[in-house]
């Protein structure tokens, strides 16, 4: 690895073929010649172990597969990919010896041998081949491209990201989930800029052990595989969090020397940092500060504040964000703010209510939610329900939470009652003047069901008016971005123009594309 961006063109010489104790080198050579035509391009044999003394069936381990070869038929009897192996252990039963192989999908495979030594040889070869296969990957590189996940992360307004690795991922050596969260940072320069030193990485499930994370073999192996594909830790990981130290210590040999650390820094991590600086478009002074902070972190550890301080990385037209103050729901909604806790959230009431407050402020600015009379107040309560429906249905479209259009029901019953709720009398007055409502308002009952039905009917009408009004007032991109960002706490409303512009230039596909089309069809 010479420049931090990939692997050397010339691969190291492969190890010699290991044979089992009951298989002489000449027989192993014959088996190698027989199976060679069945191998994939570039696939090399690492070990050959006989299953029985007659050598009718043999286990052939390559850097990609474990193959059971039928010598009589000269054919592959069974095989599995070593990339999926979690562990292999020696087992003895009444029949003989075997290497029990466990795969990441929970499958167990018995590889029988003639002796304990052969079982140990075979199990070791399979695990080593698995390690080789997992390292034989391409390193991710920064490349600006349209990425739906990056667009969603930008629209959220978040500036910090938490990566959590589960014990199951560690045990299966499955780095795909973490890479899926990290890859968008390499697809969008603006998102990458916002994420510099703003990512934390933690490994769950090992808190009860006395050993440090980097001393646990399976954690070390997992993080080594992760580092092989994503070397940009010194650009993105928080330098007051232990995650960076865990990655560094896991990637380096146990008891590493300063020279070994220096080699890894200059040949892998620092060139990767330079790539991010160039990708984001940061000044040379900022690059030098990031390098200095990296070295300070390695010297002091995560418990000490590193210097020099990281300067603001906001773009020139984003400086006004420093003075940004979130909307106050009492100032925007007045007494109606008391109704927000009555609206069922899809996952977290706080961030979702921030969205409703913002959308209400847009409607209020356009004079569409006046409350100069009790009847207008009833209509405003119905508009709150309409916004709740928009939020809920959008969340279902994009995130798969909440109710679909067929399942959704207005929470109108919770908003019928004494002021500031919609009082049944004034609902009746409004319903009597609304030609679209035909419920028998003279019907009474303990739950005043007629008032709930009348408010629901009014909310449906308001939904058809409110959504097009928001599209016109905000523009389709800004409305979509605001709805998309509502899952994240601390989202800034209105969504920054740079984020909206990023969305405008994106090619939305999959779920996001369907949600975009859906939003354009809502309302009259």
Query: What is the number of beta strands?
Result: 10
What best-fitting shape do the alpha-carbon axes yield?
elongated
Helix content: 40-55%
Query: Which blocks of ≥5 consecutive residues have pLDDT under 50?
Result: 1-14, 318-322, 435-447
Main sheet specs: 5 strands, mixed
Q: How many domains make up the 3D coordinates?
A: 3
In terms of quaternary structure, the protein is: single chain
- What radius of gyration results from the CA coordinates? 31 Å
N-to-C terminal Cα separation, in Å? 60 Å
**How many helical elements?**
19
What portion of residues belong to β-strands? 5-15%
Mean pLDDT, all residues: 85
Major sheet: arrangement of strands: 1-2-3-4-5
Q: Please provide the ordered H/E string of secondary-structure elements.
A: EHEEEEEEEHHEHHHEHHHHHHHHHHHHH
Structural class: alpha+beta
Compact overview of the structure:
This protein has helices spanning 25-35, 116-135, 148-156, 167-172, 176-182, 189-194, 217-229, 233-236, 243-251, 258-280, 284-300, 329-333, 349-365, 374-399, 424-433, 449-474, 476-485, 497-504, 510-520; strands at 18-19, 45-50, 57-62, 65-70, 75-81, 85-92, 97-103, 108-113, 161-165, 199-203. It is of the alpha+beta class and 524 residues long.
